[in-house]
Every structure is written in structure tokens, then in C-alpha cells.
Amino acid sequence: MSAEIKTIAIATDGSENVMNAVEWGIGLAKANGAKVSALYVVPHTGVTLAMRGEMWSKALENHLKDEGEKATAYVVEAGKKAGLIVEPVIIDGKTPADGIVDFAKENDTNLIVMGTLGVTGLSHILLGSVAENVVRHAKRPVLVIP
Ligand SMILES: Nc1ncnc2c1ncn2[C@@H]1O[C@H](COP(=O)(O)OP(=O)(O)O)[C@@H](O)[C@H]1O
Ligand SMILES: [Mg+2]
């Protein structure tokens, strides 16, 4: 196994808590000449369509897609400032952890970079559940940034 970093996936939920991870991911990509993808997985609440009503459901879906575009655009912009082209990727239909782990596997990602915490950001918790599940299941290095 080599320690080459040619592909980096930065996972973002668009929160304040992920900003350091974005900086590290971009910095490492620049230092290693790596290709960067910015991943946002559309989170689903598990509330059924029947419980919400269709209009409410569509509005929420659109809102979450917008969140994803904003979150990935932030990483694209940070990349641009460093002279890098970042590929924005929005994944739907999976849990955030599965979306990140599967993307990394399918795209031969050498390093996943993410925050210890995200949108929920409970300060007494060491590691959020998405971060924990990615560390647990990704069969590759994960850099978790506080
Ligand atoms: N929906 C998501 N899409 C992509 N990355 C995510 C998503 N949710 C969380 N992450 C990544 O996981 C990190 C930790 O977030 P998480 O485990 O959800 O903690 P919290 O419980 O504080 O929200 C975030 O900083 C981000 O890098
Ligand atoms: Mg979260």
C-alpha cells in the first residue's frame, strides 16, 4: 500500500464546523497535487410523504438541494482561491455516511476529509454520528478535523 494522495473527498454539510476541514482538504490537495471532490449528501428525516403532504415534501427537498449547492460552492470557491478546480458532488438517496463511504470506494478516493462535528454540533460530543460512521466503515484513511 502506498501513501499517495492523488484524490481527496471533502465531505461538507455546509456548517461552520466544517470550515477548518475545508481549509485542510484544500491545503493538502494543493501540497500533493490531488484532485478534489466536494461531497454533500442530501439528508432525509425519515418522515414519510403521507405524514408531510406532497407540497411540504417538495419544498423541503428543494431546500436541501439548495443547501447542498451552497455547501459545495463554498468548497469550490476555497479551491479557486488556492488555484484548484474542485468538483461539486451532490448525492441523494443514501444516508450521509453511506453516501460518503460509497463515493470514496467507487472513485478510488485516497483520503476523506471531514469535520468532527457538523450542523448539529453538540459540543459535549467528541465525534458526530456521520463522522463516526465514516471512520468506522470507510476502508481508507479519514482525516477528521476539529
Ligand atoms: N449530509 C452530509 N453530507 C456530507 N458531509 C456531511 C454531512 N453531514 C455531516 N457531514 C460531515 O461530517 C462531519 C461531522 O458531522 P456530523 O457527524 O453530522 O456531526 P453533527 O452531529 O455535529 O452534525 C461534518 O463536519 C461534515 O464533514
Ligand atoms: Mg450532522
TrEMBL record:
Domain of life: Archaea
A Pfam cross-reference name: Usp
InterPro entries per record: Rossmann-like_a/b/a_fold (IPR014729), Universal_stress_UspA (IPR006015), UspA (IPR006016)
Domain UspA: 5-146
Entry's family note: Belongs to the universal stress protein A family.
PANTHER family the record matches: STRESS RESPONSE PROTEIN NHAX, UNIVERSAL STRESS PROTEIN
UniProt name for this protein: Universal stress protein
Organism for this UniProt entry: Methanolobus mangrovi
